[in-house]
């Protein structure tokens, strides 16, 4: 049973046999949104998406309609769909790329028409081999049927769509790092300002960069209207969203739920979602929005999946990855593994991130493996404070992209919530969890 009466918007075809094929997509209402969009003025489409209050589903949560409206008045304009999902334990876009690529294609075409793009690109993470194969096949099918190319559906409007595989760098999930990669360069994020994509994006032209799930919502909004989408959810957190529920739950997976009216408790314990904590253990803590976010404790389980409310609690919904950690979890080890990931994925462009991430990883490894020192906790917090001064949310920026200031999140959360565990590691010369 669904948690609320909200319709499934972006996962409606998941589970339908051969859902990735064009014939299946068209038989289930596919490309009707594009047909309708091509009868509307582009400005009207922008108005509908703005009215929908569709927040970006990639992490930053910026309003899609507002992003479209901020384009610098210049030609050409480009559209880039970000399919480089690389935040640990986030796998919703991966699912959409594999199982409903035509929905992404249709959303991209509608968006390209709305913003008058000269060309559209879908940037897919290189490791998503099956998703890349199916997205490429979907684009080829759409070309053959006349949904992409010259004079689309007899409208007089033409566009090409290019599928571009990435090389598997976490940093290319940053929109400006992705644009650098798309231009054939190393994925080094750009300084903002002046390189806001809407001003200077791909090839220094105005560019809209939207996430895969964001694009997947566009056909439904066009067919049903922005007001219908805004009528779901609460406040600014409108519509539905996919959450990747992972960690110590009985039923890990992707679940599309209504924003604002669903809680973290629902995600973890409802039979329609996580189904409870494994082994019926107690919940120790959870990560609410990807590895970059501050952790929450069991006392926050009834917090609604609302962008603003979660922000007021000192963290974020981010990438939509929600990770449960049960009472058997070693919090030192959890923080260390997340930090090791960020240290490995730092592009090295900024000193606080390049140097700080490595230092933090070494100190955490020292504590976890039994060589911890009495002053290591103060040292960890001091280094974290140098990377993200004040250790507050949202973090202070000391680097070009948010990767650096995101590194302290797991460390500071673990020390603040489970300081005693760190002290036991130091005093006993190793991890008590074995």
Give an overview of the whole structure.
It contains 17 helices and ten strands. It has 434 residues and is an alpha/beta fold. It has three domains: 22-230, 3-Layer(aba) Sandwich (Rossmann fold); 240-283 and 298-326, Roll (Ubiquitin-like (UB roll)); 331-428, Up-down Bundle (de novo design (two linked rop proteins)), CATH 1.20.1440.230. Strands 3-2-1-4 form a four-stranded parallel beta sheet, with helices on both faces. Strands 8-7-10-9 form a four-stranded mixed beta sheet. The longest helix has 21 residues, at 408-428. The radius of gyration is 22 Å and the shape is globular. The protein starts with 21 loop residues before the first helix and ends in a 6-residue tail after the last helix. The model has no long low-confidence stretch (mean pLDDT 96).
Give structural attributes.
alpha/beta; 17 helices; 4-stranded parallel β-sheet; 12% strand; 10 strands; Ubiquitin-like (UB roll); Rossmann fold; 434 residues; de novo design (two linked rop proteins); 41% helix; 4-stranded mixed β-sheet; 3 domains
């Amino acid at each position: 049973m669904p948690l609320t009466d909200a319709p499934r918007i972006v996962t409606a075809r998941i589970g339908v046999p051969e859902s990735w094929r064009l014939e299946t997509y068209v038989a289930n209402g596919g490309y009707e949104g594009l047909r309708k969009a091509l009868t509307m003025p582009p400005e009207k489409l922008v108005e509908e998406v703005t009215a929908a209050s569709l927040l970006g589903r990639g992490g930053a949560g910026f309003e899609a309609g507002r992003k479209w409206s901020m384009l610098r008045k210049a030609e050409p304009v480009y559209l880039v769909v970000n399919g480089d999902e690389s935040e640990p334990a986030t796998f919703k876009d991966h699912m959409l790329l594999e199982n409903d690529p035509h929905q992404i294609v249709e959303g991209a075409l509608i968006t390209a028409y709305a913003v008058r793009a000269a060309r559209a690109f879908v940037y897919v993470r290189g490791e998503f081999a099956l998703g890349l194969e199916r997205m490429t096949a979907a684009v080829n099918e759409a070309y053959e049927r006349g949904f992409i190319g010259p004079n689309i559906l007899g409208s007089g409007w033409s566009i090409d769509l290019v599928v571009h595989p990435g090389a598997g760098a976490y940093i290319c999930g940053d929109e400006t790092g992705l644009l650098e990669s798309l231009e054939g360069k190393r994925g080094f994020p750009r300084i903002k300002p002046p390189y806001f994509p809407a001003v200077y994006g791909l090839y220094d032209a105005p560019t809209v960069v939207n996430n895969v799930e964001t694009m997947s919502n566009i056909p439904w909004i066009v067919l049903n209207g922005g007001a219908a989408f805004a009528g779901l959810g609460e406040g600014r957190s409108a519509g539905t969203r996919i959450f990747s529920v992972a960690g110590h739950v009985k039923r890990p997976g992707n679940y599309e739920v209504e924003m604002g009216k669903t809680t973290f408790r629902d995600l973890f314990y409802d039979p329609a979602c996580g189904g409870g904590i494994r082994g019926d253990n107690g919940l120790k803590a959870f990560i609410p929005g990807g590895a970059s976010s501050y952790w929450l404790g069991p006392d926050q389980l009834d917090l609604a999946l609302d962008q603003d409310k979660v922000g007021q609690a000192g963290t974020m919904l981010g990438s939509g990855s929600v990770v449960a950690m049960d009472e058997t979890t070693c919090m030192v080890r959890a923080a260390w593994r997340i930090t090791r990931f960020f240290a490995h994925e730092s592009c090295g462009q900024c000193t606080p991130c390049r140097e700080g991430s490595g230092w933090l990883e070494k100190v955490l490894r020292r504590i976890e493996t039994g060589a911890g020192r009495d002053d290591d906790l103060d040292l960890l917090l001091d280094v974290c404070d140098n990377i993200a001064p004040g250790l507050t949310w949202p973090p202070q920026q000391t680097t070009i992209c948010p990767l650096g200031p995101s590194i302290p999140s797991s460390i500071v959360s673990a020390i603040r919530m489970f300081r005693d565990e760190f002290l036991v590691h130091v005093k006993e010369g190793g991890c008590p969890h074995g």
